[in-house]
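debug: dumping io for the single-chain case to check the tokenizer round-trip. Nothing else runs in this session.
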Amino acid sequence: MTDEWYVLIEENVHEPRRVEGTELEMYRWRVAGSYFIDGGEARAVEVAEDAARNYLPRELADHARSGDVPGRSAFLTRDGAWMVSIAQRGRRCHIRVTVGRLAHLQDESEAPPMSLKEKLRSVVQAPAPRPTPWMPTPRH
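debug: decoded output
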């Protein structure tokens, strides 16, 4: 385990979709940024509060004018996360700011490319099984 602390910012992104002639209002949380904080957990908590008070999501920043100050309601939850509602020029966004310690890091690795023989065999045979999705390990 490492002692590397980060501030994580998530944005609730609005994605309108049209399905069978009907306009749907779709929202989803996405990680907008993860910022390494030098100085340990206490410093990361300070930076998270600053982000909750000052971070402007891209959706609002794209429409902001110089001198605009957005309305903001920031709530500190019992678990230390910040839930923030931000409004500006008729638009409203929500962000979540949390502090996290990097607990695991693994670099990506790809399987080696298939040989010509393997490619031809895969055309004739059934497809190879996909990797199994993650499932929690049962306790005994």
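debug: round-trip ok. DSSP finds three helices and five strands in the chain.
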